[in-house]
Amino acid sequence: MKRLRARLLCAIVLAVAGPAGVPALAETPSLGGFEDAIHHWRNVHGDQYPRHAPDEVAKIADNILRYQRLDGGWIENQDPARILDEAEKARFDAEARKSGGSFDNRNIYTQLDYLATAYAITGDARYRDGSLKGIAFTLAQQIPSCGGWPHTVPATQPYHPHITIADDVTAGVLGTLRKVVSDARRYAFVDTALRARVQAAIDAGDACLLRLQVRQGDTLAGWAGQYDARTLQPAQGRKFELPSIAGQETVGVVRYLMSIPDPSPAVVAAVDGAVAWLRRVEITGWRIETFDAPAEQFQYHRSAKDRRLVADPSASGLWARFYDVNDNSVVLATRDSVRVARYEDIPRERRTGYEWYGSWPRRLLSTEYPQWTSQHASSK
Question: Cα–Cα distance between 77 and 41 in angstroms, integer?
Answer without folding.
Answer: 6
